[in-house]
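Design job #97: recover the sequence.
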C-alpha cells in the first residue's frame, strides 16, 4: 500500500516562491517515477514535472526555468520548488508515484495573487 501526503501549498503574490513537499510511505523505491500534476478550476489535470529513476526530469513548457523537481529517496519524498510564480500557476497540485499503477496524494492548493 502506498500513501502520499502533500504539504507546502498556500497563498503567494505573483513573483514569489513556494516549495511543495510530498512524503510517501509504503512500497516506494528509488526507481519509481514520482512527480506533480496540477488542476486549475475548469481545466484538465496537467503534468507539471516528473523525476524518473536516475534523476532524469521532465517539465511542462509553462514551468521550465521556474520550477525544479527533486527527490530524497531516503525519505521517499519528492519536492517541487516553484519560483517566479504567476497567477496562472494557481491550481491544486497533486503528487504521484508510479509503482505498478499510479498513486496520488490528496492535493494541496496553490494560489498566486496578481
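Job complete. Output follows.
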Amino acid at each position: 500500500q502506498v500513501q502520499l501526503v502533500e504539504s507546502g501549498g498556500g497563498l503567494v503574490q505573483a513573483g514569489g516562491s513556494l516549495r511543495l513537499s510530498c512524503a510517501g510511505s509504503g512500497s516506494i523505491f528509488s526507481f519509481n517515477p514520482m512527480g506533480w500534476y496540477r488542476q486549475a478550476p475548469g481545466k484538465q489535470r496537467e503534468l507539471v514535472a516528473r523525476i524518473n529513476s536516475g534523476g532524469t526530469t521532465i517539465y511542462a513548457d509553462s514551468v521550465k526555468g521556474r520550477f525544479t523537481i527533486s527527490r530524497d529517496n531516503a525519505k521517499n519524498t519528492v519536492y517541487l520548488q516553484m519560483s517566479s510564480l504567476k497567477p496562472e500557476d494557481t491550481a491544486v497540485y497533486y503528487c504521484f508515484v508510479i509503482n505498478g499503477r499510479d498513486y496520488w496524494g490528496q492535493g494541496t492548493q496553490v494560489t498566486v495573487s496578481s
